Structure formats: C-alpha cells, structure tokens
C-alpha cells in the first residue's frame, strides 16, 4: 500500500484520518500540526500521498501547498489532498490551481476519504 503524511493542527482530525487510512492498509509515515512540520515531513519521507489542512498556525494550507509543490517538482509524485472546514469552499479553485489533487470539506464521511484516496492511488 502507500505511505501517507497527515497535516492538521487538530489532533482529533489527524487521529481520525490516521484511523481511516490505516484501515485501508496504508502506512502513516508522519503527522504534523504546522506548515513547518509539513515541509519537514515531506522532505524526510517523500510520501505517496499527503493531506494538508487549510487553516494552521504560522502558515496557511495554500502557502504550505505551494512550498511542498516547489520541492515536489524536483523529484516526487506525491498526491496532495486539501482538507478544509466548511465555509472555505471559495478557495477550492485557488487550491486546485496551486496544485492540489483534490479537496475534501470537513466534516466529511469516512467513505469520502476512501473514495478520494482510492481514486488518486489507483
């Protein structure tokens, strides 16, 4: 299966995503709560897939996505899923244009995560 990094400032959200993705047989190679941790985890683990929250301390998900995409362009085919709270759908187009592979709105259902991840990693 695939190696995945989860980035969200909410511990419960990281745990929920970890549980869903682990049940599918994926390996969670890292979890982070900030943009800085996201970039460090990406550089260290070169995951197959990464989830990034939009609203985080220090940097937002858009700048985090752009930073990861800059590094990614050098050597990696990592899929990036943005996970965002309701009310932030208006930035969905901006995030997809910035290089996100998909966008999931919180609160989400487990089957939404499964469908998006399976579609990207097939």
UniProtKB/TrEMBL annotation:
SMART domains: REC. One of its GO terms (biological process) is phosphorelay signal transduction system. It holds the Pfam family Response_reg. It comes from the Bacteria. Residues 3-121 form the Response regulatory domain. The modification 4-aspartylphosphate is found at residue 53. Keywords: Phosphoprotein, Two-component regulatory system. InterPro entries: Bact_response_regulator (IPR050595), CheY-like_superfamily (IPR011006), Sig_transdc_resp-reg_receiver (IPR001789). This is Response regulator. The lineage of its organism: Bacteria, Pseudomonadati, Pseudomonadota, Gammaproteobacteria, Legionellales.
């Amino acid at each position: 299966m695939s190696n995945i990094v989860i980035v969200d400032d909410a511990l419960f959200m990281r745990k929920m995503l970890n549980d869903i993705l682990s049940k599918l047989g994926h390996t969670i190679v890292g979890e982070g709560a900030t943009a800085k941790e996201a970039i460090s985890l990406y550089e260290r683990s070169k995951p197959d897939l990464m989830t990034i929250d939009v609203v985080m301390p220090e940097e937002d998900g858009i700048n985090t996505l752009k930073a990861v995409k800059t590094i990614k362009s050098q050597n990696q085919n990592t899929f990036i899923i943005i996970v965002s709270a309701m009310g932030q759908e208006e930035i969905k187009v901006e995030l997809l244009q910035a290089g996100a592979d998909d966008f999931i709105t919180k609160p989400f259902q487990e089957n939404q995560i499964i469908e998006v991840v399976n579609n990207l990693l097939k």
